[in-house]
Design goal:
globular; single chain; alpha+beta
């Protein structure tokens, strides 16, 4: 079956990439549709789950990520992580999850987001078996891990006794 890794993102996109993000968000285009224009996308666009960022639905992520975690019909994100993009300001927010078999998330962070992001407001990665998430930031033009225990979702004692439920 496989395990899921989630990504929560709030960033400001550089002006020269805002049209692309708008097209992805509004017209359901994929990263591969922009490879001819932006060759830095070529590696990521070829990955089998590339379209899951930003559109993968949440699976096995912390309850804190959804308004009604037990209502599968309600996909309402918490803390302003609903999928949105503002072309004027470059503000882009989303949360998603996917089976990260080919390191799709890491490749996205390294080869795509590092290039298109002007500023990181919130960037969080969470593997479904972790008690806490990792926090990332844009440092000298690269997305880097800055907080190995960014948000603690399950205190260690709770995790030890409930991981199998």
């Amino acid at each position: 079956m496989g395990m899921y890794t989630g990504l929560r993102c709030k960033v400001i996109i550089k002006e020269e990439y805002r049209e692309m993000i708008e097209e992805i968000m509004e017209r359901d285009l994929e990263w591969s549709d922009f490879v001819n224009e932006f060759d830095f996308l070529s590696e990521y666009a070829q990955m089998s789950r590339a379209s899951f960022i930003p559109f993968g639905s949440l699976a096995y992520m912390p309850d804190e990520w959804e308004l009604n975690p037990n209502d599968y019909a309600c996909d309402k994100a918490t803390e302003g992580f609903d999928r949105e993009f503002n072309k004027e300001t470059g503000y882009w927010a989303f949360q998603c999850s996917l089976k990260n078999y080919e390191s799709e998330i890491e490749t996205f962070l390294d080869t795509v987001l590092s290039v298109i992001a002007e500023k990181v407001i919130h960037l969080e990665k969470h593997y479904e078996e972790w008690a806490s998430s990792e926090g990332y930031d844009l440092v000298n033009g690269k997305i880097e891990l800055v907080k190995p225990e960014f948000v603690i979702y399950r205190p260690e004692e709770d995790w030890k006794t409930t991981w199998y439920l």
